[in-house]
Amino acid sequence: MKRIIALNVLFLPAVLFAQQQLSLEESYNYALKNNPLRNQADWLKEKSDAEISILEKGKLPKLDVNAQATYQSDVVHFPGSLPNMSIVPPNKDQYRATVDVSQLIYKGGAIQAQTKLKEAELQTLQQQVEVGLYGLKYQVNQYYFNVLLKQEQAKLLELKKQQLQERLNEVKAAVKYGAALTSSEKILEAELLKLSQEQTQVDADRKKALEQLSQLLHLDVTKDLVLENPNLTVYKNEENLRPELKLFALQENQLTVSEAAIAKEVFPIVSGFAQAGYGNPGLNMLDNSFQDFYIVGIRLNWNIFDWGQNKQKKNIIRYNKEIVSTERENFLLQTVINEQAAYNDIIKYEGLLQKDDEIINLREEVLTSVTSQLKNGTIRSSEYIIELNNLFEAKIDKQLHEIQLSLSKANYNVIVGK
Question: What molecular function does GO assign, one term (predicted)?
Fold first, then answer.
């Protein structure tokens, strides 16, 4: 009961109270710990233990109680008569109650082999759970970096709003003293309203993405939660540590153990038995009365010809091993392809980021010049807005490339099982 309660508590949604920051690694941990699949591994263990217990009970004595009452149309009798002897035939109504005990003596190690097979099956099934849980990391990556992108976009929009507000305050002062046209003020005000719409859209998108991440992690988070931009490193040609590889190895081991269990099926079965009973007639069919009796003995069962079934079962095991081998080869091939694709994305975004910095530097120089011209009244507000938008578009591009680079690195690490 305590175990069940503990498992149920595991699925109560965690609440992120004091902690207002969340890292990618913490997101992985929450997703793996709180997913319903995590509970499955424990139930698989309970199921396997119960099945093994049933197998082990096959070594214990078997006790059966049997009773029957019959009436038959004829009984054993002698056709003639013997001198000085009268033989009374058994009654046509007969009664018997017995207690039968049997004890397995030898089964060629079949029970031990089946027990090992159940243990191997458990390891395989539990590893399948781990593979399923590991796949959650891809989902975490998508949701996490989607929230992070919206989070960083909101910061840029707020910075852009501050700059626009500063220019608007300067233009208002210029209009007051007749140094600028009223239209310049209206243009900036309209741009601020447009920017406010963009902020509303980004905030709504971030809230939606945060809710998706919250559901995946089984966390109750607030809208003020800040995601950390991870500083990830990748190494080319790392050893593949994916849980699928361990699963393939366990599947092959299970098939090997299964093959050993099949080999035990052709061994003879030796058991001892005893029967104690009470009936009419007893063992002496000529004694027409209720008697108690007993029988003890030893029994041998050996199926010496099974029409090749055992051999066919072994062939099936061999075919399954080949299937597992081809699945592993295909998995490794796909992993190499995905790994190279993710690494190429990393190189691509690193190259784009180098150009992003150059573009932003040039745009900042242009905006500085345009800002000075706006203050001096030599250009209109619309011209300033064009250059301001150009700068922030460049910054958003850089921000997008940074998030895409981090996402590519995160996916690369997941692909190689890091």
Answer: efflux transmembrane transporter activity
